[in-house]
Design brief:
Shape: globular
Helix content: over 70%
Structural class: mainly alpha
Number of domains: 1
Number of helices: 7
Number of strands: 4
Largest sheet: 2 strands, antiparallel
Strand content: under 5%
Radius of gyration: 24 Å
């Protein structure tokens, strides 16, 4: 029996591609568009597998909110308490709004709640899509997590600038030093500038790497454990033992990945809300 290259199988599943695997159909070859030249840069805007699943995740977020809202409207029209799918989504929305957005941003958190909720549900669906057959995890792509972190960075900094004004925002980069005055305070404030700027850049970088690392690592572990079946399945008398033990381990990791999918969506939304809240106050 020819043993497959486990490394190639793992990379094939986790890496981006120009094709999408469909059940009963085979590979769907995505269109390839001509390169776009932007000065010395060459950019290709052709859709890839991760782009397709990003669109699927966006559609699922829309359908979830639309169906839940429609169901809630009908239930309230008949003066019935929310139940079923609509009740679950409503509870989740209230949790994100109250316990993540408002709790960490403050009384202004309600106006940021739609953005925080969009982040949570969009990242959640992106994470879960990699756990279904023929699926892929867009959040296992650094470009995707980096773009999500960039939107958070822009919301954090722009909202802080609008809240504090030019002078107050400048103090977040060159903070006044308590207990110091005159030239010494000015020198210390300027010296702190590079550190504060670095701190602003570290936040989106941490959001990017954390989400990417957690979503990629789980798939590596699952596929590597499944690969044990092919690596050691040729051992006579041990086929069933290796198969059952590998399947049990994979099932356990899959359940853990299901929890991690919710956890990472929560952590990304939570940290974004915390960073927005920190920028709402000059101190």
């Amino acid at each position: 029996m020819q043993v497959p290259d486990i490394g190639e199988v793992v990379l094939h599943h986790t890496a981006d591609a120009w094709t999408v695997e469909l059940p009963f159909i085979g590979e769907w070859h995505l269109p390839r568009w001509p390169d776009v030249h932007v000065g010395p840069l060459v950019v290709n805007l052709s859709p890839t597998k991760h782009v397709v699943f990003l669109i699927v995740a966006a559609i699922l977020v829309f359908l979830t909110m639309w169906l839940a809202g429609r169901s809630l409207k009908k239930q309230r029209a008949h003066e019935r308490a929310p139940k079923g799918f609509a009740n679950a989504i409503e509870a989740l929305v209230f949790f994100v709004r109250d316990e993540i957005a408002i709790a960490n941003i403050g009384h202004d958190g309600a106006k940021f709640a739609p953005y925080i909720m969009t982040l949570f549900f969009f990242i959640l669906y992106c994470n879960l899509l990699g756990l279904v057959p023929y699926g892929s995890t867009p959040t296992g792509n650094l470009a995707v997590t980096g773009a999500l972190a960039l939107t958070s960075f822009l919301v954090i900094e722009v909202s802080g600038f609008l809240k504090l004004g030019p002078k107050g925002y400048l103090h977040t980069i060159f903070p006044p030093v308590p207990g110091m005055k005159g030239v010494g305070a000015t020198v210390m404030s300027i010296a702190m500038g590079p550190i504060e700027l670095l701190g602003k850049l570290v936040k989106p970088f941490a959001l990017t790497v954390r989400l990417f690392g957690n979503m990629t690592a789980g798939h590596f572990v699952i596929l590597s454990l499944m690969g044990l079946i092919f690596l050691f399945g040729h051992l006579t008398g041990w086929n069933w033992a290796i198969g059952f033990s590998s399947a049990a381990l994979v099932l356990g990791i899959m359940l853990l990945e299901l929890f991690v999918a919710f956890l990472q969506a929560y952590v990304f939304a939570l940290l974004t809300a915390v960073f927005i809240g920190l920028m709402q106050h000059e101190h």
